[in-house]
Amino acid sequence: MNVEEEVERLKEEIKRLGKPQDDGSYKVTFGVLFNDDRCANIFEALVGTLRAAKKRKVLTYDGELLLQGVHDNVEILLKPTPTATSAEAVTKS
């Protein structure tokens, strides 16, 4: 799997495990992602995939490097997709 594919899979997993926010984004903690069996089987290097997604501005979280245990409560925010934001705007109109 290349980096782009892994980032797409990560987005799917964050949507599966995270809580939808009012703006179309999704929020999940690092601990939930890290300890999920499905994620453990998909991602060889979850932290590396998170960093790649952050670099591509797909998601955001505090800090540079997340470590199990120490950063389990760090919130990861998957930014809303442009289609989700425009769909929200149409719904609210």
UniProtKB/TrEMBL annotation:
Source taxon at top rank: Eukaryota
Family indicated by similarity: Belongs to the costars family.
This protein's name: Costars domain-containing protein
Listed InterPro entries: Costars, Costars_dom, Costars_sf
Ranges where the Costars domain occurs: 1-79
GO BP annotations listed: regulation of actin filament-based process
Origin species: Coffea canephora
SMART domains with a match to the protein in the record: Costars (SM01283)
